[in-house]
Amino acid sequence: MMRRRIAVGALLLLLLVVAGCGTEPISSNSENQATSPQITGEESMLLVLEPIAPEEAHEQEDSVTESEISTQSEEAEPVATASEDSCILYLSRNFGREILDSQQVKVNSAGSLMDYMRGEWLVKTGYGGAFVQGINGLESTNSSGQRFDWFFYVNGVAAPVGANQINPSPGHIIWWDYHPWSNGPGQPAIIGCYPQPLKDSGVLILATQRWMELARQCREAMGASGIRSVEIADLIQNIPLLERPTTPVMVIGAWTELEEYSYFQEWNESYRRNGSSVHFTSNGVELLAVDGKIKRVLGEGTGVIVASGKGLGDNNPLWLVAGFDDQGVKEAARILCSHPEELRWKYGLAVQGGQIIALPAD
């Protein structure tokens, strides 16, 4: 009997020891799970915040007025480039401020722009069917003394003929915008189809020696955007090329330098006719409305990215990445190199302190 009691007591003691040792690993495992970087509340919060932080920084850095972003913030961002066998048809109004539609259409060798448009939208034509007068019920009209019409650009260049005479190629971007007529000849070239027309035709960057490093940075950035041919040359030695360019030309520089040359003096003096919607003065950069009237004047730190041509169908437009001062040049170049999406569906833009203003000004 005594032996049995001793055996039972030993067995109970052993069970108590084992049970006591077993509680520690369970507690330890619970602590390890709580401190695991895969499940802590802190790490979960970082996973949520990481994609938000860059957008908040971008809003602070590149903020624009509510009227300029309200439509785009409500709409999905349209595609920027077409596939190898298609072109993009894009509809907007008020110089790109209001998105209406965007379609990617497969291209065939026999199709005209008018054919593709009729396949996507309800199109009303005039003048023997050559010119578009209405799309999806939005028609040419006179309102409050202004004439409103549809205008279109092929790769950022104003078309010189009607839609029935245009045969889009794969990769082309055709942008239709409904807006009032300007008091001048209109806008022969715009920046909103970037990287076109530079992607297809290449571009020559002209800059003075002090801006050569910036020009090289722009060349690298444009290459990343699909522009395969980007050459750089000294502006001073190549001013005559601006009169008869054989390729699109991008000029980078501060207005204090550019105004020394008669070409840019004449270009600036014709601000009501060159379609850029900007006018450089000693006090700042005047931003013009579609009627040619001054809407705003921006001073130090103002940069612009605008395009200009010598008439409809000018496939070798001038692109100006310029500033009222050095800081303005850097601001404009930063948008081109780091935020090229900001060019999309704008006729031109001005920037100051990270704030982007679409042109023509409203």
Question: Describe it for me?
Answer:
- The chain has 362 residues and is α+β, with helices and mostly antiparallel strands.
- It has 2 domains: 66-180, Ferric Hydroxamate Uptake Protein, Chain A, domain 1, CATH 2.170.130.30; 198-359, 2-Layer Sandwich (Chitobiase, domain 2).
- The protein is built from 10 helices and 19 strands.
- Strand 1 (86-93) and strand 2 (98-106) form a beta hairpin.
- Helix 7 (212-224) packs parallel to helix 10.
- The longest helix is centred in the first third of the chain and has 34 residues, at 2-35.
- Residues 10-79 have low confidence and may be disordered.
Taken in chain order, the helices and strands follow as HHHHEEHEEEEEEEHEHEEHHEEEEEHEE
Helix/sheet category: alpha+beta
Shape: globular
First-residue to last-residue Cα separation: 106 Å
How many distinct beta strands? Answer: 19
Query: Cα-atom Rg, whole angstroms?
Result: 30 Å
How confident is the prediction overall: mean pLDDT?
Answer: 82
Strand content: 25-35%
CATH top level label of the largest domain: Alpha Beta
Unreliable segments (pLDDT under 50, ≥5 consecutive)? 10-79
Identify the CATH homologous superfamily of the largest domain: Chitobiase/beta-hexosaminidase domain 2-like
The total tally of domains equals: 2
Strand order in the largest sheet: 11-10-12-17-16-18-19
CATH topology of the largest domain: Chitobiase, domain 2
The main β sheet shows up as: 7 strands, mixed
The DSSP helix count reads 10
Helix-residue proportion? 25-40%
Named at the architecture level, the CATH assignment of the largest domain is 2-Layer Sandwich
